Amino acid sequence: MNRILSITTLGLALIGAGIATSADAASRRVVHPNAEGGTTATAITARSGPNGGAAVRGRGVATDGQGNATAVSGAALRGPNGATAARAGATTRTADGAVQHRSGMAAQGAQGSVDSSGSATKTADGQITQNRTTSATSAATGNSATRTSAYNSGSGRTRSTTCFDAGGATIACPTRP
Predict the structure, then answer these.
(1) In this structure, are residues 164 and 141 in contact, taking their beta carbons and an 8 Å threshold?
(2) What is the DSSP letter of 81?
(3) 30: nearest Cα among 7, 9, 64
């Protein structure tokens, strides 16, 4: 399973380093038995555009023959205008039915930046918990907002949003018209 993460990380690093393929698109897919008695499948795709844009995407799945499985995926892109974005996620399912998911994303461009990360868990007995934190910053003002949300199947959902000025002081959040 570490091999899947390594392949995904490598692909994401290629675009981050600005390494382009000699063609406009390249891909590779591999499926094989693994040492844990299951199967490992990986795929990576890279594309580049005529104006400097590029994207790479990788994903992988590994099973162990005992009912456990892990899936990971990631993608990164660079626009011709210099904007960048990346996302990654991993989900693990155990033989007893428990599931754990983690994911995150980040993007940055002329308007500002946004990043988000979170996780979700379902236990073998069906209890669910989830949390996510998302932050956005305006390039024009430097002001930012952070939203947190959490869910627990026993107690429900909670949410909060806090806004900050460019210096980091808490300010009132703007209201929607």
Answers:
(1) no
(2) T
(3) 7
